[in-house]
Specification:
single chain, alpha/beta, eight-stranded mixed beta sheet, 10 strands
Length: 769
């Protein structure tokens, strides 16, 4: 065995025998390493889910409750400000982790498992309804183009939507299995494009109303104006309850509530929002709600005014497409805008499919981290290291749902509303209970009344009450949703309960399982005699798969421990939500880490070298590696090849993570070791560039000419390079920018680079400064 306190090189004789009697020390960081994002990016991530409902919520609601639906959709989006406050209060109490953690801390694990089961049902339905809705938009625009061109070709929308939904789900299944998630940058770009679409809708709709006036005004949201579909009253049909106006309004509100799905993502991104966190959370939440009011609420009302009542049922599955085709202007222009709407819809709805898989996987990983799921579910993929079994289960349920729905968006919407409202209600109830148990809220839901020394949370209570009434109304009015939702929820609840008991039994039976490692839990890690004994200038080796240890063996063989210490780290991958609350010891260091470090110890022992062992929990492994290298002041970060990306992309990702470090950034080199090939070296940070021989000759020629004719002996080669760089910088800020960029691209394209295998010879820097 290897103990980190032993330094130097030598054999493994008596020293190793002595070390076997003591447990090996492993430093485990108890704080999750995070990468921080702006409130704009946070809002984009939330809106990728929430704003997608604009494409299907209006049509589903109108088919259920009649032509007053647009006003209820708008009312739901205004009500989202109240729900926003609940999530903000939850985050401000450091009870962060979404529905599960809030309900668990407030009302215990039993109700927590029940509520999270409903939440999983919500996530499972989010993917199919988004993918199928995108397929509906795409299929119908294909038919419109075909009709315009008189090709005679038409696709059946429902079947086409179902096939498209399965293909889209399969694509994101593979992306998540590989572990390549959509970045916040992509989410931001999609929301920027969506904002353009929303603004065009608002301006064009206003112009249409000014030119030809509204075709009709949607009836006021009164009980007398509601026209429920044949199956949209469920078990309430024919009862006295449905004769009460307030009950009718609540039922109609429940049929529209699916327009507000997506707030659970707000709790998940909170921990990653940059400081000041609470202030930026408020800005994020306000951006989300205001955008949703206009993109979903106002545009749905405008569709109700502009698309004639007699025609609008044809567009129940692609309401925004119908609105685009009924604006003023030439048909060809309107068709072009319709195609743009479909492209935006496919982007944002496909993003919602990805979000649903990531969200469900994150929640289930969170349950595994809390001991609710047995370790079998979290067994990492042999090649990619992802929790592929959970991903497989999620996607399988989504594909089955798509096939069962046969591409019917309305059917999916009815079932989807069940999970949405019950997860909202359980979240609100948990926050309400915690209001009386805790008093450390940095933010409180507005409308609080002081009665003596007590504070009555009137606003929080009313919001919770509304959600409860809507949840009960949905329970009795949506037969399909209730049967499927309750059945699915109870099934998941049973699985979670049995799994948690098996986990508890397994922990009792393997109580001594981790005794060979002495876990040193630290809130943070640092070098120079702190948590890590390694000296500054050490070599940090990142490991993840015990079947891929070639790069560690290479470092152990070539490193002289008198000059450089070796630190071996693994990133304990956690879900986004896990970054929102403290993890226990058994959650931070699982059997996976134990198996991995056992192999590390054996490899090091064979080489007669000592290493420091470090486990770091993180959401993004690239951020974790870079932050760790900076904290312990490593001179080199070494990693093996990745199964999911080539060396250039791996270097780019790590380089991008380095650029996000706060100033002053610690410079170090990155080495990517590939078996049977020269290593790839990347210098992270400012460093002297390596010039090609022809470049050195060119600098010398210019120096000769200038020194002979103008400057004399005072001129140095570095002066020539300095002027050239400043002139280039000026040109990049001028009209000559494109010309300079083209020259650089041509230089890259036509050069023939030799392969270097020394760190100080490489100038391969994806994050050039």
């Amino acid at each position: 065995m290897v103990a980190p306190s032993c330094r130097g090189e030598g054999g493994t004789g008596d020293l190793v025998q002595q070390e076997r009697s003591t447990a090996i020390r492993v430093v485990v960081a108890s704080t999750v390493m995070l990468s921080f994002i702006s409130f704009w990016r946070g809002a984009a991530i939330v809106l990728s889910d929430l704003a997608s409902s604009a494409f299907y919520a209006g049509g589903i609601a109108e088919e259920a409750i009649g032509r007053s639906a647009p006003w209820f959709i708008l009312g739901v989006m205004l009500f989202s400000f109240a729900v926003r406050s609940i999530y903000m209060e939850s985050c401000s109490m450091y009870v962060r982790g979404g529905v599960y953690v809030v309900v668990r801390d407030a009302m215990g694990p039993f109700l927590a498992r029940l509520s999270v089961s409903a939440l999983i049902f919500d996530y499972i339905l989010t993917g199919p309804i988004s993918a199928v809705s995108a397929g509906q938009y795409l299929g119908r625009v294909i038919n419109e183009i075909s009709e315009m061109l008189h090709t005679g070709m038409a696709v059946p929308p429902n079947q086409f939507a179902a096939i498209f939904g399965i293909v889209a789900t399969a694509y994101f299944w593979w992306s998540n299995t590989k572990g390549i998630h959509e970045s916040s940058t992509k989410a931001l770009r999609i929301m920027q494009i969506t904002t353009v679409m929303v603004v065009m809708f608002l301006v064009w709709c206003t112009l249409t109303l000014l030119v030809r006036g509204p075709s009709q005004i949607p009836p006021a949201p009164l009980a007398s104006n509601l026209q429920f579909g044949k199956h949209d009253l469920g078990w309430l049909a024919g009862t006295r309850w449905i004769q009460i106006s307030a009950v009718v309004i609540i039922v109609a509100f429940g049929h529209s509530l699916l327009a507000m799905s997506g707030f659970e993502t707000l709790a998940q991104v909170y921990r990653e929002i940059a400081a000041p966190k609470l202030k930026n959370l408020k800005i994020t939440a306000n951006i989300v709600c205001i955008f949703a009011v206009f993109s979903t609420g106002v545009i749905t009302v405008l569709a109700g005014m502009i698309i004639p009542d007699a025609i609008r049922p044809q567009y129940v599955d692609n309401l925004l497409g119908g609105l685009a085709m009924h604006l003023v202007g030439p048909r060809l222009v309107r068709l072009g805008f319709h195609i743009f709407v479909v492209v935006v819809g496919v982007l944002i709805l496909s993003g919602a499919v990805n979000t649903s898989i990531i969200g469900a996987n994150g929640v289930l990983n969170r349950l595994a981290e809390d001991g609710v799921l047995v370790p079998w579910f979290r067994k990492p993929h042999k090649r990619f290291g992802t929790s592929y079994r959970l991903i497989n289960a999620i996607v399988l349920m989504q594909v089955v749902t798509i096939i069962a729905s046969r591409g019917d968006v309305n059917l999916l919407g009815q079932a989807y509303a069940f999970g949405v409202v019950w997860s909202f209600f359980m979240k609100a109830l948990g926050v309400l209970v915690l209001r009386f148990r805790r008093h450390d809220q940095e933010y409180k839901t507005p409308l609080n009344i002081h009665v003596g020394a007590r504070q009555l949370p009137v606003g929080l209570f009313l919001t919770t009450l509304v959600l409860f009434l809507v949840a009960m109304a949905n329970l009795f009015s949506k037969q399909i949703a209730t049967i499927s939702g309750v059945g699915f929820t109870l099934l998941l609840f049973a699985i979670f309960t049995i799994s948690s008991r098996l986990n508890a039994k397994a922990r009792r039976e393997t109580k001594q399982g981790l005794e060979q490692f002495n876990l040193d839990m630290r809130p943070d890690i640092s070098g120079g005699g702190g948590a890590i004994h390694a000296r500054p200038g050490c070599i940090l080796v990142a490991v993840r798969n015990y079947n891929r240890m070639t790069h560690l063996q290479d470092v152990l063989q070539k490193t002289n421990l008198r000059r450089n210490d070796i630190v071996v780290m693994t990133v304990r991958s956690v879900s986004t939500g896990a970054g929102e609350y403290d993890l226990a010891e058994n959650q931070l260091f699982t059997n996976d880490e134990r198996e991995l470090f056992t192999q590390v110890v054996q490899v090091a022992e064979k080489e007669g070298k000592t290493v420091d062992l470090l486990a770091v929990p993180a959401i993004d492994p690239f951020d974790a590696m870079v932050q760790t290298a900076a904290k312990i002041q490593a001179s080199r970060l070494v990693t093996g090849v990745s199964a999911r990306m080539d060396s250039e992309e791996l270097a780019r990702r790590i380089g991008h993570a380095w650029e996000k470090l706060p100033e002053p950034r610690h410079p170090f080199s990155l080495e990517i070791i590939t078996p049977d090939r020269p290593s790839t070296f990347v210098n992270l940070g400012p460093h002297p560039p390596r010039l090609w021989p022809r470049d050195v000759d060119l600098v010398h020629e210019i120096w000769l000419e200038l020194s002979d004719n103008y400057a004399g002996a005072k001129l140095h080669h570095r002066d020539v390079l300095g002027v050239a760089l400043r002139r280039m910088q000026e040109q990049l800020q001028s009209k000559q920018r494109e010309e300079v960029v083209q020259d650089i691209l041509q230089e890259i394209e036509h050069r023939e680079e030799p392969v270097f295998n020394r760190a100080n010879e490489s100038d391969n820097q994806p994050t050039a400064r």
